[in-house]
Structures are given as C-alpha cells and as structure tokens.
Amino acid sequence: MPHIPQETEVPRQRPNEIPHNEKLLSLKYESLDYDNSENQLFLEEERRINHAAFRTVEIKRWVICAMIGILTGLVACFIDIVVENLAGLKYRVVKDNIDKFTAKGGLSFSLLLWATLNASVVMVGSLIVAFIEPVAAGSGIPQIKCYLNGVKIPHVVRLKGLCYKCPSVPYQAVPTGGLASSMSCPLPSLLFQIFEYFRRDTEKRDFVSAGAAAGVSAAFGAPVGGVLFSLEEGASFWNQFLTWRIFFASMISTFTLNSVLSVYHGNAWDLSSPGLINFGRFDSEKMGYTIQEIPIFIFMGVVGGILGALFNALNYWLTMFRIRYIHRPCLQVVEAMLVAAVTATVGFVMIYCSRDCQPIQGSSVAYPLQVGNDTEQHSGPCWLFCADGEYNSMATAFFNTPEKSVVNLFHDPPGSYNPMTLGMFTLMYFFLACWTYGLTVSAGVFIPSLLIGAAWGRLFGISLAYLTKGSIWADPGKYALMGAAAQLGGIVRMTLSLTVIMMEATGNVTYGFPIMLVLMTAKIVGDYFVEGLYDMHIQLQSVPFLHWEAPVTSHSLTAREVMSTPVTCLRRIERVGTVVDILSDTSSNHNGFPVVESNPDATQVAGLRGLILRSQLIVLLKHKVFVERTNLNLVQRRLKLKDFRDAYPRFPPIQSIHVSQDERECMIDLSEFMNPSPYTVPQEASLPRVFKLFRALGLRHLVVVDNRNEVVGMVTRKDLARYRLGKEGLEELSLAQT
Amino acid sequence: MPHIPQETEVPRQRPNEIPHNEKLLSLKYESLDYDNSENQLFLEEERRINHAAFRTVEIKRWVICAMIGILTGLVACFIDIVVENLAGLKYRVVKDNIDKFTAKGGLSFSLLLWATLNASVVMVGSLIVAFIEPVAAGSGIPQIKCYLNGVKIPHVVRLKGLCYKCPSVPYQAVPTGGLASSMSCPLPSLLFQIFEYFRRDTEKRDFVSAGAAAGVSAAFGAPVGGVLFSLEEGASFWNQFLTWRIFFASMISTFTLNSVLSVYHGNAWDLSSPGLINFGRFDSEKMGYTIQEIPIFIFMGVVGGILGALFNALNYWLTMFRIRYIHRPCLQVVEAMLVAAVTATVGFVMIYCSRDCQPIQGSSVAYPLQVGNDTEQHSGPCWLFCADGEYNSMATAFFNTPEKSVVNLFHDPPGSYNPMTLGMFTLMYFFLACWTYGLTVSAGVFIPSLLIGAAWGRLFGISLAYLTKGSIWADPGKYALMGAAAQLGGIVRMTLSLTVIMMEATGNVTYGFPIMLVLMTAKIVGDYFVEGLYDMHIQLQSVPFLHWEAPVTSHSLTAREVMSTPVTCLRRIERVGTVVDILSDTSSNHNGFPVVESNPDATQVAGLRGLILRSQLIVLLKHKVFVERTNLNLVQRRLKLKDFRDAYPRFPPIQSIHVSQDERECMIDLSEFMNPSPYTVPQEASLPRVFKLFRALGLRHLVVVDNRNEVVGMVTRKDLARYRLGKEGLEELSLAQT
C-alpha cells in the first residue's frame, strides 16, 4: 500500500549549499501543529478532567504567562544595564586614549585604536553566532515571525539560544537592536520542564506569542503594542482568553522592567522607566499638529517608503552576495570585524571633518566629546574639535547608544544640530546600517532605522522651519519623530502594531493619527517597489511562510492541483516492518500519514479512518506497542499520553530504534493513537478555500478526499506556500531539499 | 428523500410571548454566513477577475472604510452638538423657572415642573423606540456583539435603525450613552447600495466591524481601543488586512470628529476634541503611581467587581420582571416616563437636602446651580442653597451631562467634593442607572457606570487621603479614574479593549498597568458571582451566541450527539415541486440543504455532493431556472451572480413565488449553484473540534458525514450554542420557536 511520493525523490545532494534563488521553497523546515491530535488517549484524558481541574490548568497558564513576563523583564534589565555600562566604558577608553595619543602620535593612531577596539568587541559576538548558535544572528524577528506562522525554525525557542544570545547582544556596539522579543521566546521551553501538561505545539505556540509580546513590551514600554505585534505577526485565530493572557504577560514584563530599573537608577518605586527604549515624553500641549501639516506628513511617508525600499533593495543584493560567497563561518567573522572597523573609521573621519560644535546644555548629552582642547589649546589638529563648554554633536551621535541618539534627535531644542552634520550622518548611517543587517551578529534593524529616520526627519524639520521662516509648528523634534516612523515603516512595513508601539513609546496619544498616516503611506509606497525587509529575508531563506490570504488570483487552482499525490497511507492494523520502512525512507518527507481501513481485499484507495503523526509512530515503536501476527487477539500494550509528552519535542530518529526481524512481522493497531477525525477537503475545493481552512486552524496536514471519502492526496504547508503573487501574476516556487 | 427534522415540530404557538427562561435558545434568529458559497458562478467570476481588478476591489474596500469613518464622525458630531445644546437648554429652563417659581409658589412647584419636563422629553424618545424601532433600545452594544458573532438581529444594520436612533438619543437627558458605535453599524447598508460587489455576509460583517470600531473611536477618541473592541467582541478570524482597514476607519472617524468639533468650537485646525467623551488629560508627570499603591488598586477592582455583580443581579431581576409584565409598548413608555420623573424628583430632593456649596473656581463647571439667592437673601428655603460665588456641587452633578460630571470627578482639585454628597450621589445614581438600563430608550450603561465608579472612587480617594494624613500620592482624581474603570469593568467585563479605551481617553499611557489590573480583578471577582451585563441580556433574549471556545468539559460529546438529524437533503437534479414543498414547510428551519447524488436507485443516504442555501433556491425559483422533465437535455437558464446579489439581503419568502402545477413537475439542476465543497466533519469529531472549525471559519452550516461521505446530520449555530457551562457542569438549553 505505501506509495513513495514522487516529488521527494530528489537526492540529498550539495547539502552545504544554500539555495541562492528566492524562487525556491526549502523542504528542511518542519511545521508546527496548532491542531491537537484528538485520539482516544487525548479524549480519555480530557474526559477524565473535571471542571475544577480545567480551572487549575487555566490558572497554570496564567502563572506561566506571569513568569514569562517577569523573566522577560529581567532579561531586558540585564541587557539594558550591560549595554549602558559598556557604552560608558567604550566612551571612556576611547576618550582617554584619544587625549593621550593625539598628544603623542597624532590622530591616525587614535583612529587605529578605535577601529581595533570596535572590531575586537564585535569579533567576540560574531564568533559566538557564527560557530555556536547561528539562530542568534540578526534581530530575531524574522525567526519569531516564522515560528508564530507555524514553521519550526531549529533552535529558535530553545533555552540554549537565549544563553548564547544574551551575552552576544551587548557586544554589538554599532546598532544594537535591544529587542528583547527574540530573547523571551525561548523562555517557554524552560517552563515546559515544569508544566508537562503543556508539552504540545498548540500550547507552546501560545506561550511563544506571549513571550514575543512581552519582549516588545519590555523593549519599548509598549504592552498594547506588544500584544498587537504578536497578533499581527503571528496569530491567525483570535482567541479572547489567549489575548488576555498575552496582554497580561506584556504588562507584567514592562512592569518588572520598570520596577527593577527604577530601583537600579536610584529612584525606587517611581516607575519612570517603562521600556528599554524610551522615546521621551512628547508634551502634547506644546506639540500638537494642525490639519495643514497632514500633507507634509504624508509626503514624509512617501520619502520613508522610497528610502526604505532602497534600503531593502541594497540589503537584498548584499544578502545574495553573502549567500553565494560568504557562507563560511570564518569569513562571516571577518566581514563582521571589517564592518566594525569601517564604522569606526567613518565615524572618526566624520567627527574629524565636521566642525559642528554645540554649547553643552541640559542633561541630554551623556558623553560629550571635546577632544584635545586640554592639551593643545586649539592649535594644530584641534581646530577641528571643540572648545570648552562645547561638544561635538557628530561625535555624540556616534558615541552614544543609538537609542539615546534617537531621543536626542527627538527632544533637543531647535538649533542643536547643524543641517550639514545631520545630512552627512544620515547618509553614512544609512549605508552602514544596511551593511550591518544580515551580519552574523545579534543586531537588529529597528533602532538604526529609527535613527536614520530621526536624522533626516529632523533635517526636514529644520529646512521647513527655514522655508516657513520659523513657524511655531515647525518643531524639528516632531518631524524627527515622523521621519523615524516613516523610515522604520518603509523598511519593515508594519502598521497597526508599529503605530501603537510609537504611541506608547512616546507616551503620546495625539500623534497616533499622523503616525498611522505616515506608516500607511510608507507601506504603500514601499510595497510598490519591493517587499518588507523581514519578509524578504524569510523568502531568501526559502521558508514556507503562509501569508494572511491565498493569492487573490488563485481561485483557478483546486485542491487536486495543489496536493501532493500519491500519499503514503497506513492501514489501521499495520505490519511493524512496513511502518519502520516507511519511516526510514528518507525520500518520504511527510510527517503525517493517513490511516485507512485495513480491509485486506481493499483496492488501492480506501476510505479515510484517521491520521497519525510520524512522532507518534516513533513513540509506539520505541515502546514496542505491537502484538504478534498469530496472536492478534492479544491486547497490545497500553500507552499513556505522558509517554508521548515525555518525548516532546525532540522525538528520537527512527535509526535509533532497534526493531528485530521477528518484531518486524508483528502487527501494530493504530486505532487508539490516530486522530480519528482529521480535517479533510474535497478535491474540488479551490486553493483560497483550502488555504483559509489550513491557516485559520493552524493545520499541519490536510487530507484531500474524493466523493467516497477515499484519500487522494495531502496538502501541507509547502503545497500552499508555493503559490505566490509575483509581478506577472501567480507564480509557483520550486521545492528544494536544502 | 426529504426528511422532516424532528426537533422543529414544535408548532408556532404563543408567538407574542417572550421566553422568560434563560435556559432557552430561540430559533427565530438566523445566522450570518462568513463563508462564501463557492459555487461555479462564484468561481467563474473570481477567475475572470484579474490582478488589477482585485486591486480595484481592494481600493474600494478602503474607500468604503474611509466613508464609514467620515460618516460615523459626522453622526457623532451631530449627537454631541445636539446633546450639548439640549443640556444647556434644559439647565436654563429649569434654572429660570426654579428662580421664578420658588419666589412665587415654593419648591414643590419647581419640582413638579422639572419632573414633568424630564418625563415629557423621555416620552418622545421612548415612543420612537417602543412603537417604531425596538432595536434602537439600549446601548446597542449587545446587538452589535450578536451581529459580529454571526447572529442576524433584525434591523440592526439597517439604515432605518440609524434614522430613528439618531433623533432618539438626544432625548435621553438622564444617562446618555453617547456611544456612537451602534449608530455607525447601519452605515454599511447605505454603502451597499453603491458597491454591489460587496453584497454578501462576509463583506458586510467586515464593514460592520469597521463601523463598530469607528463608533467607539469617535465616542472616546480611542482609535486603537475601537479596533480592539471590534476584535474582542466580534472577530474570530484575525486577518491583518481587515484589521488595517478597521484601524483606518477608526482613525478617520476620530479625525473627522476632531476636525468638525474643533471648527464648531471656534478653535479651528487645532484638533483638540478627539472624542465625544474626553476624560481630560491626566498629566502623568504630576500623577504617577508607586508600587505601594498597587494593592489598593486591586482592592478597588474587587469592590468594582462586587458592585458590578450587584448591579447586574438587580438588573437581571428587573429585566425578568419587565419580560413578564411590561411587554406592551404603552406600558414601556409609561415606565420610561416614570423613571424620568423619579430621577428628577430624587435629584431635586438631593440638591435640596445636600448643603454642599463650593466656591466657583476654574472653568470646569459649566452649569453652576445657585438657586434663589437673588430673591430671598438666604432666608426661608434658601438656607439649603448656595451663596454668591458658590455653587451646589450636587446640583452640578445632576444637571451636567454625565460625561462632564465624570470629567469633573476626575479633575477637580482635592476638596471640591463633600464626602457625604459623593456617597449619596453614588447610592442614588447606582439604583437609577440600574433601573434605567433596559428601558425602551436609547440609553447605555457605559457613562452611568463610569460616573458611579468615579463617584465612589473619588470618595475612596478622599478617605484614603484622610487616613494617610494627606499623602501626596492620594490624589482623589486618580482614584476616581480607577473607580470608574473598576465599576465599568465589573458591569461589562471587558478587559483588553477597555484598558486601551481608558488609556486613550485619558491620553495617558502610564496608567495602563493599574487600569489593566483593576479591570482584570473586577472581571474575575464579578464573574465569580454573575455574568457580564451584555452577556446576560444576550442570554435573556435567547440568542444563539457562540463564545470563544466550547465548554471545557465538552470533550465527551461528539458531532453525532450534537447534530440535528435526520436532515433534509436535495438531489443534484431535483423536482421543482419537491423544492417548493421543502421551502414551504415551516417546520423545516434550516437554511441550507446538503445536495446528494441524484442517482435514482440510491438508498436513503447518499454521498454528499454540495450544499445549497435556502436563499439561493428562492432566487432560482423566482427566475424559473428549470427545465421540463421530458427535456432534460435542454440547457436551463443561466443566472449570473448579480441576480443573487440583487436579492441580497432581503430574499423574498417562498409564499411570494408562484409556481404552477406544470412547473412543479419540471427539474432543476443545482450543480452550478450549490457549493461543491462544503466543510464537513466526521461523526466521531468531538464537540470542541466541531466548535473550533465552526467558529474559526464563521460557518453557518456544517455537514456531518460518515465514513462513506454520506450525510448523517447537520450542525448549525444553535446546536453548538445549546451547550453551556453552568454551575453544575455542562448543561443543555432547550430550543424554542419564540
């Protein structure tokens, strides 16, 4: 009866090469199952549990969410404190040495020192990522998106990932994402050690959603934004109770961060630090907006969309280059160090060339850089630097943590920045950030985008104030905010959640409407040219990602054309040898097998009775749940749901299970382990219909049946993700083993 | 072949009596179909449409959402302006007359005047509701909840409802909800006249979601809260694009309101009025909170939960009384007038008895009431009233619009209110509001709840300040806010959306965490005693409302036990007479019929081929789409999708379609009109599994099949809504025709 699926006969050749074609879909990614396998064991357990026990389970869920919130908050605190101290340390080392060496050997020596320092710090982080935990690379958001979408990205929710990611983040001196979301997602795995009832994909995915929300919440002090991020990126089925739990985790997370940081900063109990990245309070009394400004905001959205598309296009070419030529870990480390050194050099040259000295005012400048003035009294090279009581604003922008620079751009009073400085800074930072994204370091794109946008937004505001002869409404800080939103929106193309995140991070509800307008415009304009950065990277990695809806023009396809066929079926009472052979067959890449009636005289197709997962079969074989063929009336060993849970999520490979020749002739009864009511679709169902069912219920396998309920095929995630709307209409991606 | 469903044989007796048992489920409500009938016509149309045309459709959706936003904003403006002017008028009339009559004939005359005035104003609104448009009663939120849940509440989304509701709202002098959400939902119907492509339940429900969100957004200046309200109450399947459109409508709506009201109030372009109900800005610099206060907030949540449960329990008994004894329209009008007169009397007596005179300060008091002091120089009855330069705070609380009173309670400086006044006011207003909810007037529970909560919250804050000897953190305004949240949360049991609404209405993100805590606590405590007010009323009306999940202990039920059986099936090529008979059979209450193979020698059950809706059959009969039995090879008349759309949503009854005796013998081929791939479940599927499929896809009919794909039953909304988790475990509601 078993059929070997035809499309999987491609041998596993060239295993190390990553597909360098975005029109491929990789078969290496497994899917998550958001649908419970409702077999007899499961139902028996659920029926045994009474109402009070269900309440206990529900309370446990809340406890886990609270723990996720607390742990996320603590991790975020740790990152914040380490990053802040490292930035201070770096500033002091560089400043001291510049002072010393400029006196002795000239500027070139200082430059060398700075570049080396930068490169060596990055090297440590890069080594960890390149050699130990590749999943810690980047901002983690694409990985989280994929996981919430239902794709199992190896290691993404493992505690190990967190352990490596945590220490590697602070090394990223250049554009530290600071996004704690990717860090918090592995936390549920830790909690699973304690609460074994929750060891299944459904629950795990819910908790990962909570972790992602808690991470965003802690990063920006945006609990509602966190929930919306989690929903926008992940959830397909909106469940009120789940949403409340996610919201609870978000709130706890920002509250924990707030409490701990308040204590750390010495003003205990006043809760003044809601998030890692705080945009500072925009006082809406002073800084409202008027209807006349709305076209200006929309224009900024257009600019953001175009710049974002440019950023993404450049990064696309760069990533293609990296995939082709820089896929060896040591090369990746070298590239990361190169970027760090170049960043330092560019920074140094720009500080050197810019003569943008500003009087020191207020407390917004933590690390003013005024070099050399103590030693050489404004002679020699020091005419480039600043006098006492002044600071070099370009140097400040380079030496601050980028988060602080963003806040400065938002809130420094008009006249704090020289337009030339801002222009140069935008230009340089744009290319450096573009080069940095995709390096093998744990650095994201969020903060750099905000910084670029804030810089050109402020420049725009200054120009506007100049053109309108200093109208009161042309506050450069406001335009810096809009520019930041436009640039970030143009790159990542988020709207609802980003609007709320910006609203919460600025503590200002009034700017909601213009921010939404800017983000919408940036998204529409950006989408016209090229995809969002995260989607682009997901696609470049050939992940079978399911979008929200099937391509609009896909009504012409039906399940019959989409499904994999023929599909390997098992009989309800099956020979152990057959099961082992099917599982050992590397060309059979499905993880679920329809179970059909074991009528011996059945024709080739037979009525569907259930669905059993590869992982379940493995557990059955491991526990030797079978009887001899001659003793079919003997009762086979009973398993408990616990046996399956204990093996979750890393089921042993079939090779590790020894089945003797005698045992191969035994029979295995799948009836009580298979899911007796798998979801099915008829062959005539259109692709959008199949898609909707699949997506709404978070399925992993969908059996296609004919009019007599006989199995004719199987639809999995890859079969649906293959169809995509390209420039010239519907296109079909090829499948690849790599 | 047609079977008469057994459970529908209850004759249509006692049609006027409303079931006065909450353990009933009414059969009179039809369901909405969120799933498109994917028949040949539909697929042909979809396949004809190319990518560009789909983009046009998408743009049209955005345009409709913008229009919904604009219209909602304008309706809200209209309400705001009328209510404000009426409140001013009422104040002036009462004040002038009290001055006049107190001088002449004593206070009893003034009282009579006020009571009569109040009663007659309410009478007008009540007459409209009781005799013309009953659906305009109440706040409209339960109706919207039901509609978004998928229950077709007659008239709720009809333009007529809006036309009657608009003028009736301003008459509610007592506790005007001001919630524009229920008003905006009929707007999509208007737009359907223009955009015929969208004439189907799916699209309509999406636009109603947008309308509901826009309404909340305009009411509270809370665009994000509006979106969350719409999602929390309605959506089951989260779709990113839909959410963005809803958000867009929300933003447009609050922006429109803001612009128009800014112009109306004379400060054009400054956008200072984001919502109808503005809680005033809480300055978070001055009014933070500390960790020590959190237990206090939780305690307030407990109080709110208990008071809310008490409110709901009282209202439950009252509603049962009303259902039994006050179901004639004229009685309803009398009751409404009685409530108005009693409200006036209570108010008058309390103003008379309270001696709470406060110095007039600031601009927060729009209608200070200082009665009689001009004429009688503080002698006689005037010792009860106030001196020059002072106002009676009780009178202010009664004469202001409740929205303004809430704002005053939040923002008046400490010492503005006498604790006695607040206590008395809370007590009286609690019972009056409870009596008012459920009257045949368009009045909601939102603002009265906030007002009650703000009053006791402020009282609590004053006591706390007294106990702690005036700590700086014991600001009564902050506690008024928390009290308002606790009371409202205790009554309506919303959490996420309400948190965000409160955050946006106060323009303050800092209070998010305590508000969430208060709302969560209030919900948990309240749920311990009794359901939320809206859910209670939905249940009292026997609406088949589907909650988020199936009852937790329902795994023991399977589709076989839940489904209706036997089910009326049609053959693929069916005799017209049979169709007419089935449709005319009043005992057959299903609106969808499985289509089975028309094999003449089939046994009683036969393989499922498709599903056809009652409405589709009606259109087919109306257009005489059939051929003579003797000429089966003739091609039957082709219909277009437009023919079905033109009949939407009010399909004619079967009685209005004349079918001659000859025509009865003709045959009708359903193949191209039926949905060939209806969703099915096997008999063994558990109730939670069936529920999940049904809820996630927004189905109306779900066919239950056996192993051979033969129809054995049908699951509809009523079959699922019947099972509920009661105090003693799973309970099953009975079905009733009324």
State the distance separating the first and last CA atoms of chain A.
Answer: 29 Å
The interface involving the most residues is between: A-B, 88 and 88 residues
Mean pLDDT of chain A: 78
Q: Which percent band covers the strand fraction of chain A? A: 5-15%
Oligomer: homodimer
Q: What fraction, in percent, of the residue positions of chain A are helical?
A: 40-55%
Instruction: Give a short account of the largest sheet of chain A.
Output: 3 strands, mixed
Q: Which value, in Å, is the CA radius of gyration of chain A?
A: 29 Å
Treating each run of at least 4 consecutive H or I residues as one helix, how many helices of chain A? 28
The count of strands of chain A amounts to 16
Structural category of chain A is mainly alpha
- Main-sheet strand order of chain A equals 6-8-9
Uncertain stretches of chain A: 1-19, 166-182, 362-384
The coarse silhouette of chain A is elongated
Keywords (chains A, B): CBS domain, Chloride, Ion transport, Membrane, Repeat, Transmembrane, Transmembrane helix, Transport
InterPro entries (chains A, B): CBS_dom, CBS_dom_sf, CIC-7, Cl-channel/antiporter, Cl-channel_core, ClC
Pfam family, one (chains A, B): CBS
Protein name (chains A, B): Chloride channel protein
Pick out its properties.
three-stranded mixed sheet; chloride (chains A, B); disordered N terminus; elongated; transport (chains A, B)
